[in-house]
Amino acid sequence: KNPGEVAADNADPPESLESIPAYNDFFADHEKFHRIHVHLVGVRARDPEEKADAGVFKATWFKMPKLVIETYGEDTGSTDFFPIGKHSTLKAQMKKGPTPTWDVKCVVIGKKETTEGFKISVAGKSDDYSFDTPATEFPAAGEDWKELIHTPEEPHASNVEFVYKIRITDGAERIVSQEDLANFLQTTDTLEYTETVIEADEDINKAVLQSWKHKEPAKKAVLWHLGRNDCFMHPHMANPLFIEQGYDIYVLNYSFNGLCNRYGFFDDPNLRSHNPIKDFNLYNDQIAKSIEILKDGTSYEKVLGYAHSTGGPVLINYLLERGDDAFDGFVFNAPFLEWGSMNFVGESQTTEDLSLFLMNHASNPDKKWGTATTPEAIKETPIVYKDTEVVPSAWSAKLWSNYFFDWRSRPLHSVATTTGFAAGVSNVHKKLTKRTKKHLYATLKPMVVLSSRGDDVLQNKETLTFIDGVGPARVEIELGYNSHDVFLSSEEKGVVLAIDFVKSWMKAKGFS
Questions:
Q1: Beta 191-198 vs 117-123: how paired, if at all?
Q2: With contact defined as beta carbons under 8 Å apart, do 112 and 54 qualify?
Q3: Which of 262, 493, 488 is nearest to 396 (CA)?
Q4: Band of the pLDDT at 127, cuts 50, 70, 90?
Q5: Which 8-state DSSP code applies to residue 134?
Q6: In the chain, count of helices (H) and strands (E)?
Q7: With 90 as the cut, is the pLDDT of residue 474 above it?
Q8: Higher local confidence (pLDDT), 345 or 33
Q9: Which of 113, 116, 213, 391 is positioned for an S-S bond with 372, CB 3.0–4.6 A?
């Protein structure tokens, strides 16, 4: 706990995590682990003069074969219920032709001493195929990428080789450590850090505004809108992008999100990011109050709006309903503008499909979908948080491995989607679509939009398509390997690249 912080006692991580070795080893002794970064390049011909046949790697007329990466060994630290050592990917960049190309990166995690290697499996076809990469092939932690080549024999393929690269990073070293985050969440010689509760008629509708204000009055500010199940955990980005360029930072933890759990404003851990009225207008007063606090006693020359993922429709809805007078420009980090490939009720949804689904379940905004159930292997010792069984998420754990975050502020467990949230975000999508059809924009002010082909939550093509309706004065930046939050990517170089792109845009538009 940081000095002077406000925190409800029941928000602390559950002690029962210690009773399950897989969880206790990972969260309590993370220095035992290393991250195995894998770059799946693709298939190439061994002899360009001869006919090449990718065989098991080749797409059929209806789908691409599924590549699965999984660690193996005596004790990798990965289990069926906590698969930190497993990753599946389908996002091939070039599916057709004799030499399909993936060009995607991913991370699996294993114990340093007892992970013996990893296996790449090609599944989804009648002749499933796999090959191993033993740990003896791993480069030393911290070294650059090492290229490896696997040559499948006939009849699996002919005259081709599969190219991939690996690098290793030490679990004891993070891009953002617990100390890094704790040091940023406090007042310093030059910055005043505060947390202000935005009051409401009920606790569940309260919000929290974090702020970092220069003690020497600043002329610029940014109002930050979190994504779903998100929190501020970005000192590595906030410093160079905003603080060092003279910005005060305000982060809105809108109701049911971020610090609202730490403050104890709601009890059910599966209601994180919930919207109890099925309408993102709920957040408009919270944004308005944040702007009022931002302007209180300070006259900023420039104010930027920043939004990640669900923070995109939260901010855009405010612009549609109340206008853009409070802002001079916008930074959108992978805004959630279409359901696309997001798995909500078992298969991909379009906005139209989801709208029909929600019409049949609209009577109860608290209805939960995708609630994780305690795996059979740990039924006798479930993880109980706020009187509710929860299941730690391998996806969240991989993020936590590189970027420390507080369990109380961002969930390390799988969280259900509620009808209230789904209906609320879909309503913003529909508003935006209707205005786009009428050739009306949400704003005419400058914006930069970041998206990545490596996004493992949204389809970046949809992001870069639907942002067209938000405003014409946009600069779109498509990154290659960054994560859904481009500033929380597995490689620090990718994060620095994203920061540099935004800094260049800010300079060009007069925001730096």
A1: unpaired
A2: no
A3: 488
A4: low
A5: E
A6: 11, 20
A7: yes
A8: 33
A9: 391
Q: How far are the Cα atoms of 223, 279, 494 from residue 287, in angstroms, in the given order? A: 9, 14, 31
Please give the single-letter amino acid code of residue 2: N
Average the pLDDT over 102-115 and give the result: 96
Distance (Å, whole) CA 9 – CA 20: 22
Q: What 3-state DSSP class applies to 417? A: strand
**CA atoms of 76 and 116, how far apart (whole Å):** 8
Weakest mean pLDDT among 112-126, 330-344, 428-442: 330-344
Counting beta carbons within 10 angstroms of the beta carbon of residue 32, is it exposed (0 to 12), middle (13 to 18) or buried (19 or more)? Answer: middle
Q: How are beta strands 66-72 and 33-45 bridged, if at all? A: unpaired
Q: What is the DSSP letter of 73?
A: S
Q: Letter for the amino acid at 22? A: A
- Per-position DSSP letters for 150-185, written without gaps between them: E-PPTTT-BSEEEEEEEEEEETT--SB-HHHHHHHS
What's the predicted TM-score (pTM) here? Answer: 0.94
Question: What are the pLDDT digits (tens) for 207-221?
Answer: 999 999 999 999 999
Q: 373 in helix, strand or coil?
A: coil
Residues 6+ positions from 153 with CB-CB distance below 8 Å = none
Say how far apart CA 474 and CA 242 lie, in whole Å: 20
State the amino acid at position 18 in one-letter form: E
Amino acid at 85: G
- Show the tokens assigned to 148: 């490896």
User: CA 158, CA 468: separation in Å to the nearest integer?
Assistant: 44
Residue of 336, 372, 378, 342 whose CA lies nearest to 357: 342
Helix axes 21-28, 394-402, angle to 10 degrees: 20
Helix (H, G, I), strand (E, B), or coil: what is residue 63? coil
